[in-house]
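dumping this here so i dont lose it
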């Protein structure tokens, strides 16, 4: 028997980083990726002092009902729509995320998606792999230049700002809409101008979504919003599925009321709206915007740091750096 506190990690991560927990905790890490149902998750949480989980682990009042020892849920993501923050706060359980360490990686990927959609890269590659390329045709596979076009960003947090800074090299004016206008110094650093949402939709040639998923932002882009956008515009979502009404988006793309879309996240993922798979003007990726070696290692390290700190260990002892509900400490 051990008197060390217990930590459960719901998915394979990086053993060398997780090893930092072992002097202080009894650590159990899952060796395979899998989804746990509600009763399985409740059983896994019972008897644990800390857990490190991912977005597919949905944790609320039912899942923590038997977790009498649980002190922290460290989420391997910036977003935490998989966690009922109010329920865990009421139970005195701290919740942390991995803010900041993935900003640049996600910004890079947003640009990769945008450029891929603009130049029809996904459809062109599928056509090539299918063996259709017999000769180069001067007017085949014409895409859209991004240089000089207007970049719109809905949700101007750290990731949105990182995306905006990259627009300078493409000579793109940047418009953004946010719950509150950014300080002038930040706007200047991002070369960005605050507008209302309707103007953002009307004037953007490329619109990138980087806002969190909440009850207020669900279907923030639906049929009415898509109708305001230019028929030549393209939509990029690296935020969360559910911010976009996927059915409305499919209809707009199919009817060419919107030129294209590039999506890393989806409603009900990993299930997809079947219409998306039939469209040649949609670039799709499986929620991998932060999936670089360096970033995923950094995310694991931040989660470990938060657990260590809550129990008085490591460089942040007593002051976990990414707590979302500090009132419970």
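and the seq i came up w/
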């Amino acid at each position: 028997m051990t008197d060390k506190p217990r930590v459960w990690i719901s998915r394979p991560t990086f053993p060398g980083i997780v090893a930092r927990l072992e002097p202080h905790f009894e650590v159990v890490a899952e060796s395979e990726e899998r989804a746990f149902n509600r009763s399985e998750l409740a059983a896994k949480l019972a008897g644990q002092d800390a857990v490190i989980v991912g977005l597919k682990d949905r944790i609320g009042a039912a899942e923590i009902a038997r977790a009498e020892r649980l002190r922290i849920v460290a989420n391997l993501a910036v977003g935490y729509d998989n966690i009922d923050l109010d329920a865990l706060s009421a139970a005195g359980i701290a919740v942390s995320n991995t803010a900041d360490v993935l900003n640049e990686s996600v910004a890079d990927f947003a640009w990769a998606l945008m450029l891929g959609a603009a130049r029809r890269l996904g459809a062109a590659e599928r056509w090539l792999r299918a063996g259709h390329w017999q000769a180069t045709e001067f007017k085949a596979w014409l895409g859209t230049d991004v240089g000089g076009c207007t970049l719109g960003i809905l949700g101007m947090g750290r990731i949105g700002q990182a995306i905006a800074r990259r627009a300078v090299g493409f000579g793109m004016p940047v418009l953004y809409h946010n719950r509150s206008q950014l300080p002038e110094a930040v706007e200047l650093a991002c070369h960005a101008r605050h507008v209302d949402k309707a103007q953002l939709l009307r004037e953007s040639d490329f619109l990138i979504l980087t806002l969190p998923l909440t009850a207020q932002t669900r279907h923030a882009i639906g049929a009415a919003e898509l109708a305001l956008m230019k028929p030549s515009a393209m939509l990029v979502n690296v935020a969360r599925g559910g911010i976009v009404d996927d059915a409305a988006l499919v209809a707009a793309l199919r009817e060419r009321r919107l030129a294209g879309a590039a999506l890393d996240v989806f409603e009900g993922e990993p299930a997809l709206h079947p219409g998306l798979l039939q469209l040649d003007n949609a670039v799709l990726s499986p929620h991998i915007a932060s999936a670089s070696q360096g970033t995923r290692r950094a995310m694991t390290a931040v989660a470990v740091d938060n657990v260590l700190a809550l129990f008085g260990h490591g460089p942040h002892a007593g002051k976990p750096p990414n707590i979302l509900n500090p009132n419970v400490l």
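The two ends are 29 Å apart (CA to CA).
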